[in-house]
Design goal:
This protein is mostly helical. The protein has five helices and no strands. The chain has helices spanning 3-23, 39-61, 71-94, 96-110, 115-136. α1 runs antiparallel to α2 (39-61) and α4 runs antiparallel to α5 (115-136).
């Protein structure tokens, strides 16, 4: 198995362990009021463990090949990771909705998507995410300094 796959599987398992441990302190709701804040992170963690197991099994079957490493192969993932860090920096200023629409549409534009389509799709995805998490899972989102009342 390739060395970076070991690192990936190990990283996934470390992240999953962290999410499970930290989600234990999330506020709990009675069963008749909804799933609570810990439901979705734990669901994603379980999915990540399943995908890590699939990756492990697939890599046991694949013969070793050398990969030609170039900057062009990691340019987009590095750029998307930087966009995520920028989002973390601006979410408390602009709030969840504005910052995520900006970051998601900008990321889509970097991926060579038409800018009009990128803005429409990112707005739709962000609003659906907000509705799902706010009303179904009862999770609050940052409003932002610019839009805070009081």
């Amino acid at each position: 198995m390739k060395r970076y796959n070991w690192y990936l599987i190990g990283s996934i398992l470390i992240i999953v362990a962290y999410v499970f441990i930290s989600s234990a302190s999330f506020p709990k709701l009675p069963l008749d009021q909804g799933y609570g804040a810990a439901f979705f992170p734990r669901l994603i963690s379980i999915i990540l463990v399943i995908l890590a197991c699939i990756l492990f099994i697939q890599n046991l079957k694949i013969e070793k090949k050398e990969i030609d490493f170039k900057f062009s192969t990691i340019k987009i993932p590095v750029l998307l990771m930087a966009m995520t860090l920028i989002n973390l920096a601006i979410i408390n200023i602009f709030g969840f909705i504005i910052s995520d629409i900006l970051i998601v549409s900008t990321s889509m534009i970097f991926l060579k998507i038409n800018w009009k389509l990128a803005v429409i799709v990112s707005a739709l995805v962000v609003f659906l995410t907000y509705i799902l998490f706010h009303f179904v899972f009862d999770v609050s989102f940052p409003v932002g300094i610019l839009f805070a009342r009081g």
